[in-house]
Amino acid sequence: MATRGVRIAGGTARGVPLAEPKGVRLRPTSGLVREAIFNILGERVRGARVLDLYAGTGALGIEALSRGAAHATFVEAEGACTAAILQSLSRTGFAAQGTVLRGRLPAALTQLEGEFDLIFIDPPYDDPAREEVLLGSVRLLAPGGLIVFEHASRYNPPGRPAGLQLLERRTYGDTAIALYGHLEGE
After folding, report:
1. pTM, to two decimals
2. What is the reported pLDDT for 30?
3. Integer Cα distance of 68 and 94 in angstroms
């Protein structure tokens, strides 16, 4: 039971299919975009603490674990999705390295503590709270960490949200990613 063929693209769990959340329509990050993201991140993933917001299938966080991340925390509002993420973590052998939190964003950000080296934000493209979630995640970003913000290519993400700077933006068809880091000197 894989979600439209969503499989881990690289690392130790390469090829493992992700569990399908029942009764939930999702727009999982395509394999092409996931591969591009992890090519950009390269060795930054190894040993990283990862936060996967709007986790959906958990593909980004589980991909990070497969490529050597130390731990991933997943935040997702839909119960069927959280159950599928737990199943996929077990299926890939990463159950001990994953924490799944059920909650709606941006409110769920208040339940998170600590610093994360990589934060993946993949909201529904029409989510009016997407920039609030981006701003709310700044306090969770470790020094030298990166936020990977996925969005529709027609959307223009903020260039300098409070405490962050846009480092790079890349477009892949209808999807784009914006990479953010802390402002220099902060």
Report:
1. 0.92
2. 74
3. 11
> In the chain, which ranges are continuous DSSP H helix?
31-41, 59-66, 79-92, 130-136
Domain boundaries, the chain: 2-182
CATH topology of domain 2-182: Rossmann fold (3.40.50)
3-state secondary structure of 59: helix
How many CA atoms, within 13 angstroms, populate the side-chain half-sphere of residue 66?
26
> What are the CA-CA distances from residue 21 to residues 9, 17, 34, 87, 159 (Å)?
19, 12, 19, 10, 34
> How is residue 10 annotated by DSSP?
S
36 DSSP assignment = H
Measured CA to CA, the distance from residue 93 to residue 89 in angstroms comes to 6
